[in-house]
Amino acid sequence: xxxxxxPLNTGFIKLDKGVYVTGGRGYGEEIEVPAWAFLITDGKENxxxxxxxxxxxxxxxxxxxxxQPEGFRIDAQLKKMGLEVEEINTIIFTHLHWDHCxxxxxxxxxxxxxxxxxxxxxxxxxxxxYKSYSSPKAxxxxxxxxxxxQTVAGEYAYNDFVALFPTxxxxxxxxxxxxxTAKGLYVIAGDAVFADENLQPDVHRNLPFxxxxxxxxxxxxxxxxxxxxxxxxxxxxxxxxGVGRQAVYP
Length: 250
Ligand SMILES: [Zn+2]
Prior knowledge:
With 250 residues, this protein is an alpha/beta fold. The chain has a single domain (4-243), classed as 4-Layer Sandwich (Metallo-beta-lactamase, Chain A). The chain contains five helices and eleven strands; from the N terminus they run βαββααββαβββββαβ. It has helices at 17-20, 56-62, 74-80, 116-123, 218-231, and strands at 4-16, 30-41, 46-49, 90-92, 111-115, 150-152, 156-157, 162-166, 175-181, 184-190, 234-237. The two termini are 13 Å apart. Bound molecules: zinc ion.
């Protein structure tokens, strides 16, 4: 079977467009964005990229008004694909923000890959990011605290059609996933490219794409976006509505 990528919508997050998506414009505009996880499969192996966001009650603590509709939890979405959580042997995390690693303890048989810098920061975040990482210091419980991760640092070829590469900026140890398909190279960007609008030129600033509003390092963020766009034939964003245009890629 050819390599396929299935986007899995795990819920909706309410956020300020200018603060998160399009830095420099859209401030004060409240929008609702999907929280994507992805299943990559060649028919033999099932690889999950992120486990998505949490249930409504917890999501609302992070971003008020966010919600996870019935049937959108990661295990329910996999079930719709005919997969049980036990059948997932590999999970690749783009990063460890709350909306990308919820329900991780459900995956008892999975080997979990994360960038070393991301794990270090997630376990001991800056006060500005306590909530993003569900830190106990914010009275929350992170899902990743007791996980024995496989850490990577730098480019890593997982197999002959999946490769990880560092894309820091949104957070310290963000990584993206390059997937070779019969119709070109897809990059699952995670939040290194937040939404579809970030792929459009920034006319006001005369830039080839629109930098995001939320980052720990603006220069790394810009360089990572440029790297992804240059490398990819197709970009799958972390929170873009456009991802939902197809049920399966390519
Ligand atoms: Zn996110």
